[in-house]
Structures are given as structure tokens and as C-alpha cells.
TrEMBL record:
This is RrF2 family transcriptional regulator. Gene3D superfamilies: Winged helix-like DNA-binding domain superfamily/Winged helix DNA-binding domain. Transmembrane segments: none annotated. InterPro entries: TR_Rrf2-type_CS (IPR030489), Tscrpt_reg_Rrf2 (IPR000944), WH-like_DNA-bd_sf (IPR036388), WH_DNA-bd_sf (IPR036390).
């Protein structure tokens, strides 16, 4: 459903958020090790999220990636998806057709619109804090052990 870049971006953001709740900045190597992601690929994705103001980073020996705890309450997963993948998942055709619309629907259009709208609502109402708290509580996981 999401691109690999988006999957890695969401996982990285969840991990950064859990560490930020502890007042820590996270180095790239720590992120990639804990979310099982390639370093160069993850660096590119996080660079895009920094550019969009979704996550912050500092260079130097005390640097790393972090999210202000208050900001975690407002960062919606939909913002991460839009920054990395754009809005095609919210507007695109389920079959990938360029001309699909309500007036000229593809065979899946009417059923896919319901799924797409439900996904959009879920992503727009879920914050990075919601996901980080699930991980911290042990109710969810990022990497299979």
C-alpha cells in the first residue's frame, strides 16, 4: 500500500518519537538498527522529512534526530505519507489508471473510494505520539524478534 520509502519513514518516525519521549536524540545508525532499514535509504527519507519540518536534526557529537514532545501530538501519519509519497494514495485509482473518476470509473472505483476514504481518515486522525505510545507500552512492535 505504501512505498518502501514511506514504510521506512513511518517506522523511523515512530522510533525517533519513542526516544524523544525519553529526551534523547537518535543517531542514524541507531535508527536503522532498530527498524531494520538500510542506512543510506533511511537517511534520504529522513532528509525529506526534515525538509518538510516533520522531524528535526542536529549535527555534531550531541546531535541526532528528534521530535519535540508537544509536536508529537500534532504530527499526523498522513503528513508523513504526503511528504514521502505525495497524495496519490488519497486520490489515485485502485488500478492505477490515469483517467479514473466518479464520472468515468474503473471497475473497482466505487469500492476502492470507500477503502481510500477510510484509510485517509485513519491516517489523518492518528498521531505519531499515538504510535509511539503503543510501542513504548509493549502493545505494538517495529521489528520481529
Amino acid at each position: 500500500m505504501f512505498s518502501k520509502a514511506c514504510e521506512h519513514g513511518i517506522k523511523a518516525m515512530i522510533y525517533i518519537a519513542t526516544q524523544s519521549l525519553n529526551g534523547e536524540r537518535v543517531k542514524m545508525g541507531d535508527i536503522t538498527e532498530n527498524i531494520d532499514s538500510p542506512e543510506a535509504f533511511t537517511a534520504k527519507v529522513l532528509g525529506e522529512l526534515v525538509k518538510h519540518g516533520i522531524v528535526e536534526s542536529l549535527k555534531g557529537p550531541y546531535g541526532g534526530f528528534y521530535i519535540q514532545p508537544e509536536k508529537m501530538k500534532t504530527i499526523k501519519v498522513s503528513e508523513i505519507v504526503a511528504a514521502i509519497d505525495g497524495d496519490a494514495i488519497f486520490n489515485g485509482c485502485g488500478l492505477g489508471l490515469s483517467e479514473c473518476s466518479h464520472t468515468q470509473p474503473c471497475p473497482m472505483h466505487h469500492k476502492f473510494v470507500k477503502v481510500r476514504d477510510g484509510l485517509k481518515q485513519m491516517l489523518e486522525t492518528t498521531t505519531i505520539l499515538d504510535l509511539a505510545m503503543g510501542l513504548k507500552s509493549g502493545q505494538t512492535m517495529l521489528v520481529r524478534i
